[in-house]
Amino acid sequence: MKQVSLLGCGWLGLPLAKSFLEKGYSVNGSTTSIDKISILKSEGITPFKIRLIEDNVEGEMDLFLANSEILIIDIPPKLRGDSKENFVGKIQTLLPFIEKSSVEKVLFVSSTSVYSDNNEASTEEFIPQPDSESGRQLLASEKILESNSKFKTTVVRFGGLIGQDRHPVKFLAGRKNIENPNAPINMIHQEDCIGIIQKIIDTNSWNETFNAVAPYHPSRKEYYIVKAIEYGLPLPEFDESKPSIGKLILSTKIEKVLDYTFKKVHL
């Protein structure tokens, strides 16, 4: 039986772990919450309470990685508000544990925030120039993992994450003066996130970088007004007094290299 270690069993990580179990894998899953240990266990996941900090690891990281060939890192940087954590430091702290473990392949969940809002179409060949702290730290973390010769790394840059219980229109409903009405959306459904990660592993697609965004890019104004009506929410209002800035993320490499067909296109 193959074993996967999944660092971060959150909104995406937990259903991803369940999908691996359905495929016959055994799964080691981590959480920072003691309350979630019983939830992971009840799903058939071997649970570990692990917390990465800038210069230390709290928890049994060696045991968490033991006997796994594949490690999936799904711990997004927490850099909003007053939180200014050193995410790069966390990845650097993790490296020695990976190097001495049985792990041969690492899948790093990154974000399209590594690309700047410069109104250009971005493919994986485009050199990222992030304009946010989150994007800068994610890009630096990608490079740290990719440059390590002790294991193979594949990076997946997901767009805005949506699912049955998660949609950004709920936060924008009724708001006024929303900027960049004509910028394109770059989103991906949870179901496709899981499908793409599984396809990478099934096809042994390592030492690669993939943009992962549904091939559906209406303007923010068009999209969020339609979604607000669909959800029965107050309409958002947009500021059209200045030019919109944004980016268009292209995921054609996923369709060509992985031969993956998106399940959720019209999000």
Q: Quick recap of the structure?
A:
This protein is α/β, with parallel strands linked by helices and 267 residues long. The chain has nine helices and 13 strands.
Q: Strands, helices and their partners?
A:
Blueprint: E1 3-7, H1 13-22, E2 26-31, H2 37-42, E3 46-49, E4 51-53, E5 56-58, H3 61-65, E6 70-73, H4 87-99, E7 105-111, E8 121-122, H5 133-146, E9 152-158, E10 160-162, H6 169-172, E11 187-189, H7 190-202, E12 209-212, H8 220-231, E13 248-249, H9 252-257
Helix pairs in contact: 4-5
What does this structure look like?
The chain has 267 residues and is α/β, with parallel strands linked by helices. It has helices spanning 13-22, 37-42, 61-65, 87-99, 133-146, 169-172, 190-202, 220-231, 252-257, and strands spanning 3-7, 26-31, 46-49, 51-53, 56-58, 70-73, 105-111, 121-122, 152-158, 160-162, 187-189, 209-212, 248-249. It is 31% helix and 20% strand. A seven-stranded parallel β-sheet has the order 3-2-1-6-7-9-12, with helices on both faces. It has a two-stranded antiparallel ribbon with strand order 4-5. Strands 8-13 form a two-stranded parallel sheet. Strand 6 (70-73), helix 4 and strand 7 (105-111) form a beta-alpha-beta unit. It is globular and about 55 Å long.
The main pleated sheet reads as: 7 strands, parallel
Portion of residues within helices: 25-40%
Tell me the number of helical segments per DSSP (H or I, 4 or more residues long). 9
Secondary structure category = alpha/beta
From the structure above, extract its key features.
267 residues, alpha/beta, 9 helices, 20% strand, two-stranded antiparallel ribbon, 13 strands
